[in-house]
Amino acid sequence: MSVFGDYIGPFLLLLGVLIFVHELGHFIVAKLCGVKVETFSLGFGRAILRRSVGETEYRIAWLPLGGYVKMLGEAPGDELPVADRHRSFNEQPVGRRISIALAGPAMNLILPVFVVAGMAMTGLPKATSLIGGVQPDTPAARAGLKPGDRVVAIDGREIWRWEDLDRAVKAGVGVPLSLDLEREGERLTLEGVPERGPEGKGVVFGAEHSTASAILGLPDPDGLAARAGLQTGDRVVAVNGESVADRYALLAALETATGPVELEVVRQVDDDELRIRVTLRAGPGAWSLERIGAVRVDFSVVAVHPGSPAKQAGLEPGDIFLRADGEPVSSFKDLAVRIRGGGGAPLALVMLRKGRELEFEVVPKRSPTQRNGKVETIWAIGIGGGPPHALGEIRDEVVLNPLRALGFGAVRTAEVFALTISGIWKLISGEIGMENLAGPIGIGKFAGDYFQEEGWYPYLNLLAIISVNLAILNLLPIPVLDGGQILLVIAEVFRGGPLSTRAREIAQTVGLSLILLLMGFAFWNDILRHWSDLVGFFKGLV
């Protein structure tokens, strides 16, 4: 069976939790307001399971794309027994009806607060203040910082997270920072002064959490390094006997070298590492990567997105691009241009993995991406590319204080809320095209990918994000949505009495038409993006 067959469970779990929490909000507040709840349903259509408890029928229906709480007197034209009239929804005061309508979206905003808080209390991965690399000719380099230094305090305030160091750097240009460091078991204090970035933008300090490895790319078989026996993927660990920690150290060592240059490299072949020493000789002149016939390797796979064409083809982080459609890959930027201009044609790739050349065929798919502040749909294979990095230190931060964890969850939920509102506005204003909407198929793919390949944390994070999106969607002033119900109640206030049954029916019809139109766009986008997966899924059923 295709990938979809494995993703139905995670998708139904995610959707079931979100729907249950939403409808539970309506149910609880309706009960507190004395409204009679006739049905509590997860899903639409014919019931698969049903059970009556007291005055309410609880059911699970076959179409799991929503749910509802049916209250007495909620539908226009309902005939009400005189004895139960006071318990009907439409007979309630304005404040109670608005509270019942708001309760569902409110629960979808409360849920991510507790989900993120729970994640924080079990441990969230955080980058530590261990310095992975130092860019040459930057304030950090001039201050004397080195890779492997651990910043333990800034201006006397103890820290351990990288974000604390980053926040202090961005606090102000020209403001001296007193950095207490641990280096090889000793403690020392250095002072660095952040500078204004290129063209007066941003702040530059030069200390990095992770750093580009000193890996060589050798596109020229006649270059000095290639003729000496070196290969693409070799990692330089020493120049003239002096150890090299990263790309910056390699460039600095070459610039200061005179006479013959001895390179010591590590070459990985399967799970073994070979150490090789070569000596390069040339006429007078400064040494550089260009002179030895090498280039910086910025055309490697840094990340593979779950469920992407690259993931399905078998690409892995750390793979280095050698050739695409028979032509050498000289930069990740050039490769991206080739993919985006290929019209979705299959791409024949030759990759270097642990010293072995491997062949792959990847079929690009259309994917939304943000460029220059705007979202565009481009052909992509679903990878993050760049130089191979030696990752810095990561440590789990466990928030034991429940109140602090809830505060963290609230802040995170507010950030997602603001981003979602911004995205909706861009959609309305036309800055983002309708082709970027995703429907149940797209959400199901994301849910399955995260659940199977990334683990519980990304999956729960996705649940929290979608929960916020669901809350905002239901608050839109469209009849049949909670926001539309609130709008109708407010209209009654201004009108001075209940709306006519005909007016309510027209509003419901218009609202339903808008929702179906929106869902139609989302479904169409899903079909275009995942056609091959859908075909494979249905073939697996027969």
Provide the structure class: alpha+beta
Provide the domain count. Answer: 4
Beta strand count: 28
Q: Rg to the nearest angstrom?
A: 30 Å
The averaged pLDDT comes out at: 83
**Which word captures the global form?**
elongated
Uncertain segments:
1-5, 537-542
- Strand order of the main beta sheet, please? 6-5-7-8
Largest sheet: 4 strands, antiparallel
Helix content: 25-40%
SS summary, helix count: 14
What is the first-to-last residue Cα distance? Answer: 10 Å
Strand content: 25-35%
Structure, explained:
This protein is of the alpha+beta class. It folds into four domains: 3-122 and 443-541, no CATH class; 133-209, Pdz3 Domain, CATH 2.30.42.10; 216-296, Pdz3 Domain (Roll), CATH 2.30.42.10; 300-390, Roll (Pdz3 Domain), CATH 2.30.42. 40% of the residues lie in helices and 27% in strands. It contains 14 helices and 28 strands. The strands form eleven sheets. A four-stranded antiparallel beta sheet has the order 6-5-7-8. Helix 1 crosses helix 10, helix 2 packs across helix 9 and helix 2 packs antiparallel against helix 12. The model is unreliable at 1-5 and 537-542 (pLDDT under 50).
